[in-house]
């Protein structure tokens, strides 16, 4: 703000445009939700971190639920777009899984607060909103599609056999995305481990293990 002569008046803060303020509040909320988790984060935490009043925060978001929903919606949109683009660029199933692993490593590195929120809440979508349930379902669907891609293209496979494979793939999906999320989080805590080594271990763990299951190998029941 100036005094009419073009000189800025000291101690007077300019009002941030609405859109920019909203973007700032969403970024601060992301950091707080990622650090504290949904239940421990309160609106006053977000307001204090953003250096605004609670009243101003409530002008933009009517509740913590609405604020969290907008934060997670943005995460879901970006991460699923990255995953879809990476998988569509690959034709082979192992290459598709490798591409998904690379996207997750990239995202965790570039967006640590968003990654922390996803890891903390992905398996509790019913507790914190539908947006993360959508991410979990999309992630699961992508994994299942990669698992079944070769089977669906096999003309010798009967509809009954394909149905068995479909059911088996759905059972494997939680193991796959759970192990990948855990691997990425472990690597973030152990930066001395080369990233390419961690990625390779993830792809080998998933794909070689799946190959043994696909050939019919099973452990004997006790």
Automatic annotation (TrEMBL):
GO MF annotations in UniProt: DNA-binding transcription factor activity; transcription cis-regulatory region binding
Location of the HTH tetR-type domain: 19-79
One annotated GO biological process: negative regulation of DNA-templated transcription
Domain of life: Bacteria
Zinc-finger among keywords: no
DNA-binding region: 42-61
This protein's record includes keyword RNA-binding: no
Gene3D superfamilies in the record: Tetracycline Repressor, domain 2
PROSITE patterns reported for this sequence: HTH_TETR_2
Annotated keywords: DNA-binding, Transcription, Transcription regulation
Protein name: AcrR family transcriptional regulator
